Amino acid sequence: MVKKDSLIKGTIILAAAALVARFLGIFQRVPLEYMTDKHGGGYFTVANNIYLMLLIVATGGIPSAISKMISERYAQGRPDEAKRIYKAALLFGAITGVLITVLLLIFAPFYATHIAENPGADLAVRAIAPALLFFPIIAMMRGYFQGRQLMAAGGISQIIEQVLRVITAVGLAYIVFAWGWGQSWIAAAATFGSVFGSIGAFCVMLYYARKLRMHDAQEKQAAGNGQAASAGRASRAPLSFKTIYKEMFKISLPIVITSMTVQFIYFFDTSLFMKLTHGFYSAAEASQTLDWLGLKAQALAGIPPILAIALSQSMIPVISAAYSVRNMSEVERQASLVMRIVVFTGVPAALIMTVAATSINGLLFSSTGGSLAVAALTAGTIFQITMMTSNTVLTSMNKPHLPMRHALIGIVVKVITSVALAPFLGVYGLILSSTICFIAIASLNFRAIRKEITLSILGRRWAGYAITIVVASGAGLLVDYVCRNFIGGIPAKLTFAISCIATGGVALGLYVALLVLLRVVTAADVKQFPGPLRKVLNPLMRVAARS
Question: How far apart are CA 8 and CA 296, in angstroms?
Fold first, then answer.
């Protein structure tokens, strides 16, 4: 018996899988940073980012389109069409996987040498290419299972993929490192772990596909050997693949372009880093900075958005339902609530990681090099979170083409500002241009949202919120400085660990306390928050009410 997942359970499964995947991704990069020098880390970064970029281009948005198409057909009692859509999607995934794998294998030397200007990266790019054989098919299968409300299949496959990828990547890289084969081979061994991850994920999806097929056969038999379904099939001509692909791409194209924004930025920065910063750094400095940007800054900057995006995603069906019946007051209330939760939860995560960047860097990696780049990129995630959440609000209001258009404008802004700033500011010019891109997209999104509804996020409470941010940040910076400079006589890693805990505790504690004491968070806000947040804030609200 295959049990369908509820909306809340499905959201929790997918959010948990994303969280596990992100932390496992960081776990892979930590030992890799110890095994590679400035060249090896750059090779891995170049290969990994072009792989992720191609993966989004090949599959991004299509699983969501398939999910929508499958769920609609089953709701309409047309499972025969749903199965044909699934067949068409698998065919598309198989052809796409073969094409992009072959192209990446062929053009890896050209990309590494002439575009990324990192010739040693070609081996790593070729090593990761075979993973693209499986992932497009896996993405199609995940979309199908989501359409059938079986979220566990995608979530478990994602976790298995990451576990196998990390174990094999670190293990293979260590073996090559011990054999002394050099940095190109270490980076290639690390990227080849993605191939094992893809095979593991594919096996999980095959298991669930077999389980679902057996379940469907049992249901068909229980319904009288599918006589009713056969009659329905006889009266309808089968959908042509052309019709299926037309519908699929119409739904998925806006999602693909919108979802690729962040990965495009990372791909752009690492691919053109050498070209854009040629006059700012020497060759050795550029290699070292690219290593810091890819292995440290980009990895750690992925953490702050996780909780905020997971929380906002759970509200999307509610906003969509209210908008479909034109209940605009409910749309306003829910959209404002989503933005408020994101402001309250996403900002402190970015805040703590920004002020404790040096200690986090020193704790996880072999040195504190690149800490300022980590802090700058992490601080910019505040605007990334805002951009992504406003994208989801517009999508929930059945306007997916608006965030797509705004994303394209933002990408143009990113390219222009990078070309203008990177030659004079180096890596910080690229990071600043990314932040400007996020701000531009978010601003356009809010402008579009306000044409439909009036958002009420904090109202007159922004001054109190600004004070909270300044005080909590300042206190966190002070604690981090004191811990790193006045705690001695113990191993450096232990000093960094103490600094991380103390900085995080003080900054977060002050943040939460000031939100309550300055009346930035009200009792009405707390009642609308998810259960875990209510448990934390209710005692403080009672104390504030008595004061």
Answer: 33
Query: Please, which pLDDT band fits residue 333 given cuts at 50, 70 and 90?
Result: confident
Cβ proximity of 196 and 164 under 8 Å: yes
Residue type at 140? M
d(CA 458, CA 461): 5
Residue 321, CA distances (Å) to 147, 181, 191, 275, 529 in order = 18, 58, 42, 48, 20
Handedness of CA 383, 349, 265, 115 (dihedral sign): positive
Compute the C-alpha angle 332/328/527, nearest 5°.
Answer: 40
Q: Which pLDDT does position 6 carry in this prediction?
A: 46
DSSP letter at 112 equals I
CA distance readout (Å), 307 to 18, 342, 428, 533, 538:
10, 8, 26, 12, 20
Residue 158 token pair? 């994602």
Q: Is 518:463 a contact under the CB 8 Å cutoff?
A: no
Estimate the crossing angle of helix 371-396 against helix 241-259, to 10 degrees.
140
- As a whole number of Å, the CA-based R_g of the chain is 24
* Alpha carbons 334 and 315: distance in angstroms, whole number: 7
- Residue 224: burial class (beta carbons within 10 Å; 0-12, 13-18, 19+): exposed
d(CA 244, CA 91): 12
How does pLDDT run across 416-459, given as a tens digit for each residue? 999 999 999 999 999 999 999 999 999 999 999 999 998 888 88
Read off the pTM: 0.83
Burial level of 68, CB count in 10 A (0-12/13-18/19+)?
middle
Cβ neighbours around 283 below 10 Å, total: 10
Instruction: Take residue 225 and report the two structure tokens written for it.
Output: 């050997």
What pLDDT, on a 0 to 100 scale, did the predictor assign at position 59?
A: 67
Q: What is the full DSSP assignment across 353-384?
A: HHHTHHHHHHHHSSS-TTHHHHHHHHHHHHHH
Q: Cα(440)–Cα(413) distance, rounded to whole angstroms?
A: 8
* Residue 493 DSSP class: H
Look at 61-75, 129-143, 298-312, 463-477 and tell me which has the smallest mean pLDDT: 298-312
CA 206 – CA 183 distance, rounded (Å): 36
Alpha-carbon gap, residue 500 to 172, rounded angstroms: 31
Structure-block tokens of residue 154: 């995608």
Burial track 452-488 (b if 16+ CB lie within 10 A, e otherwise): bbebebbeebeebbeebbebbbebbeebbeebbeeee
Q: What is the pLDDT of residues 359-407, one digit of tens each?
A: 999 999 989 999 999 999 999 999 999 998 898 888 878 788 999 999 9
Is residue 455 within 8 A of residue 336, CB to CB? The reply is yes
> Residue 51 and residue 44: Cα distance in Å, rounded?
11
Instruction: Give percent above pLDDT 70 in the chain.
Output: 90
For residues 357 and 26, give the distance between their C-alpha atoms in angstroms, rounded to a whole number. Answer: 15
Report the distance separating Cα 303 and Cα 202, nearest Å.
26
Which amino acid type is present at position 272?
A: L
Q: Is the dihedral of CA 190, 192, 197, 198 positive or negative?
A: positive
